[in-house]
Amino acid sequence: MELHEIPGKATGYDHDVVVVGGGPAGCAAGVFTARYGLETAIFDRGRSSLQRCAHLENYLGFPAGIGIDTLYDLIHDHAETAGCEIVPDFVESVEFDDDREGFVVHPQEGDPVTARRVVAATRYDGQYMRGLGDDDAMFEVREKHGEEAEYFDKNYANEDGTTDVEGLFVAAPYGETGYQAMMAAGRGTRTAISLIEDVRREQGYPDSMLNHYDWVRLDAELDGEWSDRNRWREFFHDRLPDDPGLDDEQLVELREWEISRTLAGYISNEEIEARGRRAQERLLDHFDDDVILARAKELQGRQQLAESDD
């Protein structure tokens, strides 16, 4: 979806969003933030709980299961296609940016980078967040193997991924979402929606218009009055409060961007067919060549048999 720069978007940062952790939760969050138009970097070189799984049997869409390496290749490919930068580095610490609202992310090997918002999407270790908030609230003492140690409190974040620290979101698969990969992806998605709502609030959207939907629809639905951009302008103003807190120029910029963003989500039957084909071709990039060749040979044999029967 090609759009102009997001109105009211914060500038002066290396990234709008830094996601720490590139598993299902982190990549799901990154897909949604990047698709909204936020420059997103995903740091991924830590210890993933999913990599302890031998073969993933219950991730929806894979009837025979999916290999862990293949799944990682797929979700990283999806994140990069959406616009994320995958950074193969370990995040050692995150601290507040003293010069502006936001954060400085310190990786193990690369140079520090700045970000307006940070999403924590690592399950095992939240030590890199130490000092960002009330450590007593963020960390808890637990006993493991007969020794006491401090661990990130799995119940620190709210259910929607927000925290008491402005700009810090937690998509880590903790608590009830900490045991299945598909639930972790859902947690990442929910957290990304919360982050985008926060961005929209910063853009100037009133609370009645913070909702964000990421979907693609058939353009045949744009019939009658809804094919007229002026009707969308009316719809936009109908949802505004009496005092939106924006001057006329800001309001027009926000309205036209929002309408363009919405209309870009409608596509033709021809485009649906083209995207469907591209989607299948893209999946082939992640299949073993020997498997593809074997299936092609099988299909060729079926076709020859059908032709001989005729």
Q: How is this structure best described in words?
A:
Pfam families: Pyr_redox_2 (PF07992). This is FAD-dependent oxidoreductase. This protein has 310 residues and is α/β, with parallel strands linked by helices. The protein folds into three domains: 15-203, FAD/NAD(P)-binding domain, CATH 3.50.50.60; 215-267, no CATH class; 269-309. The protein is built from eight helices and eleven strands. The strands form three sheets. Strands 1, 2, 3, 4, 5, 6 and 9 form a seven-stranded mixed β-sheet that branches.
Helix tally equals: 8
Helix-strand makeup class: alpha/beta
* Rounded radius of gyration (Å): 23 Å
Q: Can you give the mean pLDDT? A: 90
Write the CATH homologous superfamily of the largest domain: FAD/NAD(P)-binding domain
Number of E-state strands: 11
Keywords: Flavoprotein, Oxidoreductase
Domain FAD/NAD(P)-binding: 15-122
Protein name: FAD-dependent oxidoreductase
GO molecular function, one term: oxidoreductase activity
Give the SSE layout:
Layout: E1 15-20, H1 24-36, E2 40-43, H2 68-82, E3 85-87, E4 91-96, E5 103-107, E6 113-120, H3 135-138, E7 139-144, E8 147-152, E9 168-170, H4 181-203, E10 217-218, H5 229-238, H6 248-263, E11 266-267, H7 269-284, H8 289-309
Parallel strand pairs: 1-2, 1-6, 2-3, 6-9, 10-11
Antiparallel strand pairs: 4-5, 5-6, 7-8
Helix pairs in contact: 1-2, 1-4
Which labels suit this protein?
310 residues; alpha/beta; FAD/NAD(P)-binding domain; 3 domains; 38% helix
